Amino acid sequence: MTRVSRPSETNADRNQGHPTPAAVVLDLGNVLIDWDPGAAIAAGVGEVEARRFLAADDFDFMAWNHGPDSGGSWADAEAEVRRTHPHWAAHALAYRANFAASLLGEVPGTGAIVRDLHEAGVPLFALTNWSAELYPHAPRRFEVLGLFDEVVVSGRIGAAKPDPAAYRAVVDRAGVPAEFLVFVDDKQVNVDAAAALGMDAIRFRTAAELRATLRERGLPV
Predict the structure, then answer these.
(1) pLDDT tens digit string along 121-157?
(2) CATH of domain 23-32+107-216
(3) What are the residues whose beta carbons fall under 8 Å from the beta carbon of 66, sequence distance 6 or more?
């Protein structure tokens, strides 16, 4: 298990009261990896049907997807949609069947930040809401994931953001108090949950903005 050394310098004049960062924790989907579930669904049922499904009033795709992200099985999730929403079953099943199509590439610029931090010796962790069954697609395709000290996958630990248990898992892996970790996520609810546990939490919008924000924390990017 990776353990991060706590920095000796803990002044935080430019960091809103947070100590000098010991490590950076990144979300993956739409922070480092461009993820579009609609592309996978469209590969099975077509673009028009995929858009109709994702905009449906009677089915919440993201809530459904959160089950496997939290440790549930895709077989159970798909059985449930067949039972409760049979008219959407083909659409829902198309997602897992064509999952690779949802991974569009690296988010522009974020991979360069990860590579710069790694080159500078900054410990890197990922905390991602991703099912254990589907996560293996990611390291096979994205070599940048090999630069992380550890990737904490929600489906493997049975807790998905914004569950505090997910954040405690990555704090435990890093081996330093939460306040020594910079956390980056594109969803405000996840940023707020990280901040509530003491992390220096940053909302991701663009890689250029993230790079500037990390520089303000004194990180070498």
Answers:
(1) 999 999 999 999 999 999 999 999 999 999 999 999 9
(2) 3.40.50.1000
(3) 129, 160
